Amino acid sequence: MSKPQDEAIGILKVALDAFFSGRVDIKNVLCQCAHVCQILGWSKQLSWFQNELFGYPEDVELPWYRKDIKGRTEWRVAGGFGTVLESVIDDRYRTTEEPTLQTAIDVRGGIDDILSAAESGCIKSTGKKSSKYISFREKHVDTKEVETYDKHVFQAILTRIENLVFKFVSESYAVLCHSGVLQDIWQGYRKKIDEHLIPIGLSRHLDAIRNGLNSANPQEWREAMWSCRDILHDLAAYLWRDQRKTYEHLPGKGENNKLEVTDGHYVNRLGAYLHQKGIDKEYGAYLRAEMQRIYNSIKTLNELDSKAHGKITLHDACSAAIGTYVLLGELITRTDMQPIMEYRSP
């Protein structure tokens, strides 16, 4: 294990202890996580932590939890305490106040701004002014229009940031602590996989998987998981080029109860490919079952994720990637990786 990795694990352990104790200084933890990303070279994750710390530039897309934050517009009395008091006790003034309207804002400020607003809310002037008549003093009171955002909307943003940071800390700690196991699997298959799959145009899927596992962005975890599916689909299209709709030598749900091997059935195609290459029937069935398990897992997680934010985790992406690499490694190790143009009796 490298020295930067050892240092990162130590920092993440301190951050985890803070979460578990219930005494989280979120600004401090954001700084700790940013340092972890810095020493490990996780540039995409570092950008998120820096934006949360110092604010999002205008040319950077805001995360969903900072967009369209609800507030209201109000007219408030301008001037000293006496003017305000006069306006409050005058019933006629109170009955002629402007109605409250709804408004919304995108929040780009850094963590200091969020923490401050979570304590007392936020008031922003719109620049509009007016004058209201107070009858009992027979004079006008200057008023100004403001946008008011209650503290609870910023507390909600803060909670979402804390939840995302905790997920990063927890999952990164687990991955780094157990990276030896992951590296053993990864390095054992990676060279063979790259040698065979990059020349046939599948490098973009491999890159997406690797980038996703090195990211703190849930969107990239999703992309990594979908690339696990897509690389198997595209590999099946490359290896299985027979144009018939079914494979006659294995049972299935196709015509005449045979195995359907059209484009949408990539698991069946790879199963038929293994059968044609003489792989033991039971072992071939096991690999097909593993491919189906990965597909079903990705499909289920995506359906859950579409219903609520943050369902897919780094652990999900790692699990899918490890399973996919094992399958790819077995295909490459046990076959000649030459396409089946027209299948024959095995």
Order of helices and strands: HHHEHHEHEEHHHHEEHHH
Could you estimate the helical fraction of the residues in percent?
55-70%
The major pleated sheet works out as:
4 strands, antiparallel
Distance N terminus to C terminus? 47 Å
What is the alpha-carbon Rg in Å? 30 Å
Principal-axis shape equals elongated
**Strand order in the largest sheet:** 2-1-4-3
Number of strands: 6
Number of domains: 2
Helix-strand makeup class: alpha+beta
Q: What is the number of helical segments per DSSP (H or I, 4+ residues)?
A: 13
Strand content: 5-15%
Contiguous uncertain segments of 5+ residues:
81-95, 133-137
Mean of residue pLDDT? Answer: 79
Summary tags:
alpha+beta; 346 residues; 2 domains; two-stranded antiparallel sheet; 4-stranded antiparallel β-sheet
